[in-house]
Design goal:
Arc Repressor Mutant, subunit A, mainly alpha, 172 residues, globular
Amino acid sequence: MAEAQKNVNKADINSAAIARSVLPLDIMGLFFFAYRDFTGDADALLERQGFGRAHHRVLYFVNLRPGMPVADLLDILKITKQSLARVLRQLIDNGYIEQKTGHSDRRQRLLFATDKGRMLFATLSATQASRIDEAIAALPPEGAHMVRQFLVSMVEPTDRSVLERLNLTVNL
C-alpha cells in the first residue's frame, strides 16, 4: 500500500526541486546580502545602545513623520501593540522619543523624536544613505528611478497608499 503523502512545510522543499524551478534565486540571494550589509552598520550602533532593528524602525518613521500617532505606526510596522509598547517604552525612557497627547483627541498618542533621537537617527542613516548613494551612482541615469519603481512594486498593493502618505514615492 502506498504511503500517505506527508504535509510539507514550504521550508522543507528539497534543493533539487528548487534547482529545477524558475525561482529568481539570484535576486533572492542578492536581497539577502544587500539587506544584511545595509543593516549591519546600523545594527552594530544600535547594539551599543542596547537596541535592535525594531528600535531603528520606530526611530525611522517617527523622524520621517514627527507627530505620528501610535496607531499609524502600528499600521505601518504591522506589529502588535505589545511589541511596540516594549520598544517605544525603551526609546522614551532613554530620551530618544517623546509622546504627547493629541490636540483634538486626548486619547491619541503622538510621537516625536527628541534631539537625542534625531541625532541617533542621523548617525544610523548616514552609513545606510552612503551605501545607497554609492550603489545608485554606479547605475545609468535612469537607474535610481528604476530601483524606486522596483521597490514600490515589491510592496503589497494595499500598502502603497501608505508609501504615498509618507512621501516615499515622490520621485516616481
